[in-house]
Write a structure and sequence with these properties.
Layout: E1 21-23, E2 31-32, E3 45-47, E4 55-56, E5 69-71, E6 90-92, E7 113-115, H1 123-127, H2 129-148, H3 150-155, H4 157-167, E8 172-174, H5 190-217, H6 223-251, H7 257-265, H8 267-303, H9 310-329, H10 335-338, H11 356-385, H12 394-419, H13 430-440, H14 443-455, H15 457-471, H16 510-518, H17 573-585
Parallel strand pairs: 1-3, 2-4, 3-5, 5-6, 6-7, 7-8
Length: 602
């Protein structure tokens, strides 16, 4: 026993033929030479654990044929020689993080106990269910063939006996494979695989659609749309994370054990884990801020008719982004967190690794959902007293309420399984934990944009604006509309309570623009533009009464009186063009108004 002696260079034991056990643990040995254990024909136990061995000569164990127990754990090995180790009963290689190559079972015919750095290395030693099933199927086929051909059966008796003996051999390999350490398929069953693919495709498409409509429709985002767009960005990152898992499952189809070590220890898993945690936390923080913003906006709308806290909420959104960024970066400093499973999440995987970070995240998210529930309960109690059912903000208030409800529902299973390892009385199958994590963790990223697209009228308004921006021809048309009149036509059924923003120097009503771009419609309060070149480009300044929210009604004109107004009953286009050119030549804006055309269904 030469343990705990700080030995750096190991001399040759040549000539010590009667040595049966050597213990060299807890030293500072760096290398094992070819002649170090040469000639030790009686050596049965060799302990080289907890050293700094980074290289072993490929012929170091050729002459130790009687060796039964070899311990090389907690060293710096990147490869292990197999010559001369066919008679081993126990091999310990755990703790060698650089040892990523797969071991071949044929080189260790008598092995009974194996300890390796990564669970995927156990797949070759009866660690994979399909491997056992395939051997069982081969045996059944051989039995059926024996019944049909007795002579062949007699010839195969020795071989079958050998296979039976090998099949009865039980190899204890740690760490064990399982749902979170699969040998074949990352996503497991087809039901889980198809669900994850569906979540990925829906999250990717609908979040991009929501972001496109919101950012393309308004030059200045109000606070409500700002948080909805930020939530969509966060959900898009979650969709990217889900897409990474689906792509990895497709690439490693049926042989994930060959990719598992490379994936978990590489930078790809860390990037995927960062995206998952960052997107999850940022979505929850932005949703909490959206709930607070809706509460403040509703109260101020009752008192003042408008809300003036946009800058404050932008600053709050920036700090929420920083908090989510910190939450995503913290596991990067603890290598075991993101690499604990191929899902690259710092959540429990059936074992009990570092649970501090997971528990902290779950408690923080639970507190955020509790705060959202309290805020919205109080908000709805106030809304029952103040009838705001017809208010333009009611749709966003209801949308945020749906987001809070659905996200909280999907968060509960993930939170429960996060605390499950701390409760010894609860025994949950790893397969169930993996299925719940793969489905419920990214599901809000799929459902949130779908709720906005199909159930929020704001999306329809933004979609109309986006379509007009895409179909708009070169140039623009300025028009004048009376605040007292409206267009009476069956085709002109639009909600003109929402206005387009100033595009460059042109102010244009949604419904009037769509009317002019589609076809001429008789209307006594519209100046037709297709015959008047002077109306193509008219400078227009933003009035004080024109709100950035595009939803406030006002009507005034500073440059036209009752006798010389563009808003008249005259249908003479020549007079209209003359007036337009007159005001344009003097630098006056053509119109300065916001208006509301009544909705007419008949």
């Amino acid at each position: 026993d030469l343990s705990y002696n700080n030995i750096k260079d190991l001399p040759s034991f040549k000539g010590c033929h009667t040595l049966e056990e050597i213990s060299l643990q807890h030293n500072q040995i760096h290398e094992i030479a070819e002649d170090t254990f040469q000639g030790l024909s009686s050596l049965r136990v060799l302990d080289l654990s907890r050293n700094q061995i980074h290289q072993i000569h490929k012929g170091a164990f050729i002459t130790v044929g009687a060796l039964l127990n070899l311990d090389l754990s907690f060293n710096e090995l990147s490869s292990v020689p197999v010559e001369g180790l066919s008679g081993l009963n126990q091999l310990k290689l755990t703790g060698n993080s650089e040892l990523k190559e797969a071991l071949a079972a044929k080189n260790f015919a008598k092995l009974r106990s194996l300890s390796v750095p990564y669970a995927y290395q156990c797949c070759a030693f009866w660690g994979c269910d399909s491997y056992l099933n395939s051997n069982a199927e081969d045996a059944s086929h051989q039995d059926q063939g024996a019944l049909m051909d007795p002579e062949k059966a007699n010839a195969d008796i020795p071989r079958n006996a050998k296979n039976e003996e090998l099949g009865q051999t039980i190899i204890h390999c740690t760490p064990a494979t399982g749902a979170f350490k699969p040998c074949e398929y990352l996503l497991g069953s087809w039901m889980i695989r198809l669900t994850v693919w569906f979540i990925f495709l829906v999250a990717l498409f609908f979040n991009l659609l929501v972001m496109l409509t919101i950012f393309a429709s308004c030059t200045t985002l109000p606070s409500s749309k700002l948080f909805i767009s930020l939530i969509s960005v966060s959900n898009l990152f979650m969709g990217v994370y889900t897409g990474i898992l689906t792509f990895l499952d497709a690439v490693s189809w049926g042989r994930f054990a060959e990719f598992g070590i490379w994936w978990e220890t590489g930078s790809g898993c860390r990037i995927a884990g960062f995206l998952a945690v960052f997107s999850s936390e940022s979505a929850i923080f932005f949703l909490m801020l959206a709930a607070v913003e809706r509460s403040f906006s509703a109260k101020e709308f009752i008192k003042k008719g408008k809300s003036n806290h946009q800058k404050q909420f932008q600053i709050a959104a920036f700090f929420a982004f920083l908090c989510a960024l910190v939450a995503g970066c913290l596991p990067l400093f603890y290598k075991a967190d993101y690499s604990a499973s191929p899902l690259c999440l710092p959540f429990p995987t059936g074992e009990t690794p570092l649970l501090g970070f997971t528990v902290t995240l779950v408690l923080l998210n639970s507190l955020a959902f509790l705060l959202m529930a309290v805020i919205y309960t109080k908000l709805y109690c106030n809304l029952e007293k103040e009838d705001l059912s017809e208010n333009s903000q009611s749709s966003t208030i209801k949308h945020v309420a749906w987001l809070i409800f659905t996200n909280c529902i999907f968060f509960c299973p993930v939170a429960f399984f996060s605390f499950a390892p701390l409760i010894t009385a609860i025994s949950i199958s790893p397969e169930i934990m993996k299925s719940v994590t793969l489905i419920f963790f990214p599901l809000p990223a799929c459902l949130n944009p779908v709720l906005y697209v199909f159930f929020n009228p704001k999306f329809k308004e933004d979609w109309k604006l986006l379509r007009r921006h895409l179909t708009r021809k070169n140039g623009a048309v300025a028009i004048a509309v009376s605040a007292q009149g409206g267009c009476v036509t069956q085709d002109f059924y639009y909600d003109c309570g929402v206005y387009t923003h100033l595009q460059g120097n042109i102010a244009l009503c949604e419904c009037c623009e769509s009317l002019l771009l589609s076809k001429p419609v008789p209307c006594k309060h519209l100046i037709k533009s297709h015959s008047c070149p002077a109306l193509a480009v008219v400078p227009c300044q933003r009035p004080d009464g024109y709100w950035s929210d595009c939803g406030t009604q006002s009507a005034h004109s500073d440059y036209a009186d009752e006798d010389d107004s563009f808003v008249s009953d005259s249908s003479d286009q020549v007079q209209a063009c003359g007036r337009a050119c007159f005001y344009q030549s003097r630098g006056f804006p053509l119109v300065r108004y916001a208006y509301n055309i009544p909705r007419i269904k008949d």
